[in-house]
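Dig into what follows:
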Amino acid sequence: GSFVTNEAGEGSSEITFGTGQVSGDFYKDKLCIGDNLCFDANFIAANKMSTEPFREIPFDGIMGLGFKDLSMGDGFNIVDDLASRAGAGSVFSFFV
């Protein structure tokens, strides 16, 4: 992957959620879902995490699946990236 910044010129962030904190740098890399859907995706590569809850959870970074307003900027939300590639009226889902 390659280092990127958001439209505010930021190249890293610290996020607090639930019972923990995570911080890291912004990167872009190729993301493939299946064999036919590949695109460049932005994400935060975690380089510092709080002990709780991450001591018990294997965790490498954050990829935005929430609302666009909660994202780090344009291009940092996988749901929006998929919607823009799928076209109007398309439906997709995630099963974890």
